[in-house]
Design a protein that fits this description.
Number of helices of chain A: 12
CATH class of the largest domain in chain A: Mainly Alpha
Order of helices and strands of chain A: HHHHHHHHHHEEEHH
Protein name (chains A, B): Ribonuclease 3
Structural class of chain A: mainly alpha
Largest interface: A-B, 31 and 30 residues
Strand content of chain A: 5-15%
Subcellular location (chains A, B): Cytoplasm
CATH architecture of the largest domain in chain A: Orthogonal Bundle
Catalytic activity (chains A, B): Endonucleolytic cleavage to 5'-phosphomonoester
Number of strands of chain A: 3
Enzyme class (chains A, B): hydrolase
Shape of chain A: globular
CATH topology of the largest domain in chain A: Ribonuclease iii, N-terminal Endonuclease Domain, Chain A
Cofactor (chains A, B): Mg(2+)
Radius of gyration of chain A: 20 Å
Distance between the termini of chain A: 57 Å
Oligomer: homodimer
Helix content of chain A: 55-70%
Number of domains of chain A: 2
Chain lengths: 246, 246
């Protein structure tokens, strides 16, 4: 028990690692750091508050899920005036899909901040999305709706939400990228290498360079998948310029 | 077409009936009155904006539903620290149930404000809840999250959300009320009379008096139902004092 308290206390320090990493992820300084500590506490820690209530990120997931839904709803409402209720509902569920939330959480490396008694290799994929939701819930409690909205814009809407893509108008990001490079007279190179590491299944990594500058990296179970993933990331990096092609 | 424009233009007047009734429902002065006009325009009016997009309350329902979910989620999160994710989800779905939203819309008489080509008697029950959701969506667009939250507190949470009741701990409001009156040494009377009016089914109205003062009224298809409904309303009127009994 003393051990757990030590871990938690170290989190509250304003110059500690947790605080620094968190500030980087958030893009602003957290105020109620205790709420964020809860957002990264796994149930296996078995922590209770003074009244015997469980302290872990699961309740914050509920809150974050609601905030994500609202922010995305208002964005879609304003962004797509031609979309009816059914369209808006469908688009939102694509954006907040389990798969997408997992990707968001993984990209931010949220799992690095988790306090858990379970080795991180034993978590399923969903922990990434769950932590992302919990983090959004914590932002709401710490700073209110406006900050929550800003964070979701920065981390979800700007980098990932492209209506054309969601409507399935883009079939292959690799072909889109190649076409764009040719049009803009840019050179490109996919540098693929085997990178299985400690995984049981064979994995490949790819570095995508445009004009000899590495633009995006990705890792997947096939060369093709890794290339597509890197192309998608490059697409979002160049979103405004490239989306004129669609 | 001209006729429709006239109807809509008359709504924008700051001294018109629509504006006055709306201000009373909202508890504050609406700014972007056009948004509220959309919130009370039925699809049967077949109105389009300059770009050909349908103008009616259906998209606002989507937005309002999301805002309701968020505000209720954050209220439950803070109010019930012992409730886990499953509990919070279940409680929220009770509060924003179709039946409950219909009741909220009906109590505010929102249907009186609707512009529609369908006679109001031909609408199903759900129009009340749909209008309530659309109104919440309009408040969000007009004044943002904080006002939306205030409105939901005033119209949903304070009068209707009692955790004990939602958990099913109250079985009969009538017995609760009687017990409370006896304890507090107050007299009570249920004054029931037939009040079918133009309805096809027989209806009863009831006036519930406590210490000879009418506290609540209700109308339903049986005497028992009407009494229970009136008792429930009285309960919420006296919520703080009576809930100590549970």
């Amino acid at each position: 028990m003393k051990n757990i308290r030590n871990i938690l206390n170290s989190r509250f320090k304003r110059n500690g690692n947790f605080f620094i990493q968190l500030t980087e992820i958030l893009g602003f300084k957290p105020k109620k750091i205790k709420v964020y500590s809860t957002a990264f506490t796994h149930r296996s820690m078995n922590i209770k508050d003074g009244k015997g209530n469980a302290v872990n990120y699961e309740r914050l997931e509920f809150l974050g899920d609601a905030m994500l839904s609202s922010v995305i709803a208002s964005h879609l409402y304003l962004e797509v005036p031609s979309g009816d209720e059914g369209y808006l509902t469908k688009m939102r569920s694509k954006i907040v899909s389990r798969e997408h939330l997992n990707e968001l959480g993984r990209d931010l490396n949220l799992i690095d901040l988790v306090e858990s008694k379970i080795p991180s290799g034993q978590f399923g994929d969903n922990i990434h999305g769950n932590l992302f939701e919990a983090l959004v819930g914590a932002i709401f409690l710490d700073r209110g709706y406006k900050y929550c909205e800003k964070f979701i814009f920065k981390r979800v809407i700007i980098p990932y939400v492209d209506i054309e893509t969601l409507e399935g108008k883009v079939i292959s990001y690799k072909s889109l990228l190649i076409e764009w490079c040719q049009k803009e007279k840019k050179t490109f190179r996919y540098n693929v290498y085997e990178d299985t590491g400690n995984d049981e299944v064979r994995h490949f990594s790819v570095k995508l360079s445009i004009d000899d500058k590495v633009i995006a990296k990705a890792r997947a179970t096939s060369k093709k998948k890794a290339e597509e993933k890197a192309s998608k990331r490059a697409f979002f990096a160049f979103q405004k310029r490239m989306s004129k092609m669609i």
